[in-house]
Amino acid sequence: MLTLRSEHRCFSGSLRFYTHESKSCNGPMNFSIFLPSKAQKQQCPALYFLAGLSSSDENFMMKAGALRVAEELGLILVAPDTSPRNRHIERDNEHWTFGEGASFYVNATQSPWSTSYNMYDYIAFELPDFLSKNFLIGKKSLMGHSMGGHGALVIGLRNPDVFLSLSAFAPICAPMRSPWGSYALSLYLGNESSEWESYDTVEILKKTPKTQPILIDQGEADPFLEEQLRLDDLAHVARENNLAIEIRKHAGYDHSYYFVSTFIESHLRFHYKYSI
Amino acid sequence: MLTLRSEHRCFSGSLRFYTHESKSCNGPMNFSIFLPSKAQKQQCPALYFLAGLSSSDENFMMKAGALRVAEELGLILVAPDTSPRNRHIERDNEHWTFGEGASFYVNATQSPWSTSYNMYDYIAFELPDFLSKNFLIGKKSLMGHSMGGHGALVIGLRNPDVFLSLSAFAPICAPMRSPWGSYALSLYLGNESSEWESYDTVEILKKTPKTQPILIDQGEADPFLEEQLRLDDLAHVARENNLAIEIRKHAGYDHSYYFVSTFIESHLRFHYKYSI
Predict the structure, then answer these.
(1) Residue A10 and residue B259: Cβ atoms within 8 Å?
(2) What sign for the dihedral angle of Cα A92, A93, A98, A101?
(3) A231 CB-near residues (< 8 Å, 6+ apart)
(4) CA dihedral B54, B57, B61, B64 (to 10 degrees)
(5) Which residues of A touch B261 (CB under 8 A)?
(6) Cα-atom radius of gyration of chain B, to the nearest Å?
(7) Mean of the pLDDT values across residues A155-183?
(8) Most Cβ neighbours (<10 Å): which of A131, A152, B6, B137?
(9) Residue A93 has pLDDT above 90, yes or no
(10) The domain spanning residue B226 has which CATH number?
(11) What ipTM describes this predicted complex?
(12) CB spacing of A9 vs B63 below 8 angstroms
């Protein structure tokens, strides 16, 4: 079941907002998809974008300025929602860094979230399978922003056969050591922090001898860089393990979509290179 | 007095959100300005964008995808707010098509709006004068979307010495004959509809033998086209009077910023041509 909520023509392609029933998330899930004109006739590669805290499936499509280049390259863009919604869980709207809009892309093990907050399975397996059955999709790649940058790196690194290249804007690199991350992980996964390691990019990279091509952009005027994002921790492991991760730092840029929009074109071209 | 509310680096330029005291609008007014990197060293042309109903000074900068080309061309972009705000007028938030976010860019003659709803004077004279004193601004041009397309055409046509070229996305062309327009104009200007003619593009064009260069883009799947926008009325006068107005209709496009973003680059290049 695929319910079209709205459709907009944009750059000759078609931007659509859908809802479908998800098994992993035990109910309806929203996503948006941009189909360049080429994708209506033939198979095209798909680039997934995971958004950050308090975003929906709309922010990326509306604010990142990605659709022009996606049409040019013939690249399908997919922006899943950042969590299940309206699951009637009491604490889901208590704080903007947890619950609705803040899934942290894990499979929750703790009640009541374990029933529906299985975004890891949803992004890694269920949604790609579902979309491949409904659209002409070729190779897949994954990117994200902030909490979604964390999701893209974690899900991508653990599933290199699904996502052939990865990128992130200002990702939360070490959620175990970030106040936002440790708060959310303790509620979704319980207090045993060894359970958190498989959702922490820095911990995963410590055990990864070789990765897909990875590109990371980070603004140096990002107020969350030191405490929440901890890019230096990632850069350190990447250097130690000699991993193929390109990290670009940009003076004066902050954490907003104005920063994302500035560098989105190079991310699309980066992923496109590995998708043809 | 110029108060910086926030600043974002974007495409090497600087996007700033300001508040200043306006005489015309009897209190504080918001606007945003994008200064391409070139504008920090030398005079650059400025392109003003007037937004539509229920927008603020943020929508255009966030959603239209204009900043990349503005940086490339060295074009300053200015997005004023769509009305005064917080003037404590009882009916100002009664309906989304009137009051806050819905000034219709007129000088109100009716109490209580006449005190502060003088957006015509603000956009045509006060803001350009103020900005020229605070930034390195050369020639000026004007564009807008929907109600802002109406504002751009009316203000631009009546002030050809101020704005050298005009453009609009899905403008309200004949507010006197549009339900949104006639409702707002009756409250701002009173019930004597002869008072409305100087704010109606179609009426103005009837008396204009020659205009600046004008470009209009319109989506054919725009749900407001027939009843609210009435582009055919404008096209008719333009043809009759042999005016230099280029009208482009686009199959499948709606009224949203997804439509605006698709064609914004050509508007920037259009205005740039006349500004150098």
Answers:
(1) yes
(2) positive
(3) A171, A173, A216, A218, A225, A247
(4) 30
(5) 10-11, 65, 67-68
(6) 17
(7) 97
(8) A152
(9) no
(10) 3.40.50.1820
(11) 0.95
(12) no
Q: Which of A57, A81, A200, A222 is the catalytic position? A: A222
The pLDDT assigned to A95 comes to 84
How many angstroms separate the CA of residue B256 from the nearest CA in chain A?
Answer: 8
What is the C-alpha separation between A103 and A44, in angstroms, rounded? 29
Residue type, A113: W
Output Rg (C-alpha) for chain A, integer angstroms.
Answer: 17
Given pLDDT bands bounded at 50, 70 and 90, which one contains residue B89?
Answer: confident
Q: Kindly identify which residue of chain A lies nearest to residue B12, measuring between CA atoms.
A: A262
Each residue of A110-128: pLDDT tens digit?
999 999 999 999 999 999 9
Considering only the beta carbons, identify the residue of A9, A63, A67 that sits closest to B252.
A9
Is residue A4 within 8 A of residue A102, CB to CB? The reply is no
The long-range contacts involving B12-21, CB below 8 angstroms and separated by at least 24 positions, are: B12/A262, B12/B36, B12/B37, B12/B71, B13/B37, B13/B39, B13/B67, B13/B70, B13/B71, B14/B40, B15/A258, B15/B61, B15/B67, B17/B57, B17/B58, B20/B130
Closest to B108 (Cα-Cα) out of B189, B209, B206: B189
Residue with tokens 């947890």: A98
For the segment B242-259, what is each residue's pLDDT rounded down to a tens digit? Answer: 998 999 999 999 999 999
8-state DSSP, B12: T
B16 to chain A: nearest residue by CA?
A: A258
Q: How many domains does chain A have?
A: 1
Domain hosting B236: range is 2-275
Q: DSSP string spanning B34-70?
A: EE-GGGGTS-EEEEEEE--TT--SSHHHHHS--HHHH
Residues in chain B: 276
Alpha-carbon span B62 to B43, nearest angstrom? 25
Q: How many residues are given for chain A?
A: 276
Cβ <8 Å between B67 and A261: yes
Place of tokens 């889901």: A92
**Does position B37 have pLDDT exceeding 90, yes or no?**
yes
Share of chain B above pLDDT 90, in %: 95
What SS3 state is found at B110?
coil
> CB of A82 within 8 A of CB of A117?
no
Catalytic residues of B: 146, 222, 255
- Cβ distance of A261 and B65 shorter than 8 Å: yes
Task: Please state, rounded to an integer, the average pLDDT across all residues of chain B.
Answer: 97
Q: Other CB atoms closer than 10 Å to residue A248's CB: what's the count? A: 10
Compute the average pLDDT of residues A29-39. Answer: 98
The C-alpha of B109 sits at a distance from chain A's nearest C-alpha, in angstroms, of: 38
